[in-house]
Specification:
Layout lengths: L1 H13 L1 H27 L1 H4 L18 H5 L11 E4 L3 E2 L4 E7 L8 E5 L6 E4 L15 E6 L5 E3 L2 E7 L13 E2 L13 E7 L3 E3 L7 E6 L2 E3 L5 E8 L5 E4 L4 E3 L3 E2 L3 E8 L6 E9 L2 E10 L7 E6 L10 E8 L4 E5 L4 E3 L3 E2 L3 E8 L8 E5 L1
Parallel strand pairs: 2-11, 13-20
Antiparallel strand pairs: 1-3, 3-6, 4-5, 4-8, 7-11, 8-10, 9-10, 12-14, 14-18, 15-19, 16-18, 17-18, 19-20, 21-22, 22-26, 23-27, 24-26, 25-26
Length: 370
């Protein structure tokens, strides 16, 4: 027995070069077999009969095959079809956008969005790469209006395709065969949907639109600073304010369901005339008329007249009046015997030549704005 073993070892040593060549031949044969298998898989779209329905100019798909479009790897032991909504809460009827992911290869498939019952179809993909329409690629986007009734909803998304690898792949609890496309007895296995739940979202009750019953005051003058404006109405919670035009700003508002109080400032340069005040909430908006008026002209004051008196017969004697708000003032005297020449006027002073006729009596000075 030992001699036989040694004899075998001896033969192995002698034929070592031949062994290497044999190993290389095996590797090459294996590579050729692998290459044949890879090529066969790349031709599945034809060999499995997909082209019988998805005819030219269709683009061949990997994701349209169940193992590629719904599983994370070729092990096909788990499902990775998933989706998200763009928001967690919606207004009644607001558009819900769903993004769907899954699979581990490229290519088209059909995506479908269902209501919570998993039966009522809300949307499906619309591309044409399948040759029959309704195709998309990952990540897929579907949209549908939110329900109009407030509540919490869990929609369902689904991959739709060919379940040819049923014998070796895991399927979700919501796998649903397509009763209209079973392909029984043909090269194609059954078609159907791999359905999964989306994260739940809520539909909030519709918010009633605001109303304005009154505003006070209804107008403010140019140059007004932090004057309180009061708005009365309904459904005012969360309201924001806006005035048409420019030159009107607001401070921090105090808001309740029925009133808004807010400090308002009107720039001195704000254009006068009609404006619109608009109150906006999540439920809508309401408007009321508002007016910007011209700034009031302050009354003049006189603090002194120098000199305080003139003699009869005085001619072109300079008289200076000091005070405030004198810009634009005109001068009148209560005695017809007193006249004046051209006055130099500033906000705080008036200087002018004054003459008194020989018959004039007491002089009274009146300062009047033009």
């Amino acid at each position: 027995m030992q001699i036989v073993i040694r004899s075998i070892r001896s033969k192995l040593k002698i034929t070592s070069t031949a062994s290497v060549l044999f190993f290389c031949a095996v590797v090459l044969a294996g590579f050729q077999l692998w290459g044949t298998e890879a090529q066969a898989q790349s031709n599945y779209f034809t060999s499995m009969g997909c082209v019988n329905c998805h005819m030219a100019p269709v683009v061949a798909s990997c994701n349209g095959c169940h193992s590629h479009g719904t599983h994370p790897t070729s092990a096909k032991s788990t499902i990775n079809v998933a989706g998200t909504t763009n928001k967690a809460s919606y207004a009644p009827g607001e558009t819900v956008t769903v993004t769907m992911t899954g699979g581990y290869k490229n290519g088209w498939f059909r995506a479908t969005l269902f209501a919570p019952d998993g039966v009522t179809e809300l949307a499906r993909s619309t591309g044409t790469a399948s040759g029959m329409g309704n195709s998309t690629t990952y990540p897929a986007t579907l949209t549908a209006p939110a329900p109009t009734t407030p509540g919490t909803y869990t929609w369902v998304i689904a991959w739709y395709g060919n379940k040819y690898d049923a014998s070796g792949a895991a399927f979700g609890a919501k796998w649903t065969p397509d009763p209209n496309n079973t392909n029984t007895g043909t090269a194609n296995a059954e078609h159907g949907w791999e359905k999964v739940n989306l994260p739940s979202f809520t539909v909030a009750a519709a918010t009633a639109a605001p109303t304005i019953s009154s505003i006070s005051p209804t107008s403010m003058a140019q140059g007004t600073t932090n004057s309180t404006l009061t708005i009365s109405g309904t459904n005012l919670i969360g309201a924001t304010l806006a005035f048409s035009g420019t030159g009107i700003t607001t401070g921090t508002a105090t808001v309740t369901a029925t009133s808004i109080t807010v400090p308002v400032t009107v720039a001195a340069t704000a254009t006068t005339g009609a404006r619109t005040l608009t109150v906006t909430t999540a439920g809508g908006s309401a408007s009321s008329a508002f007016t910007v008026t011209a700034a009031a002209i302050p009354a003049p004051t006189v603090s002194s007249v120098t000199p305080a008196s003139l003699v009869q017969g005085a001619v072109n004697q300079t008289v200076t009046i000091a005070g405030t708000n004198l810009t634009g003032a005109t001068i009148t005297f209560s005695n017809a015997g007193v006249t004046h020449g051209t006055a130099t006027v500033t906000a705080t002073s008036i200087s002018m030549p004054v003459s008194v006729c020989s018959g004039a009596h007491r002089v009274l000075v009146n300062v009047v704005l033009s």
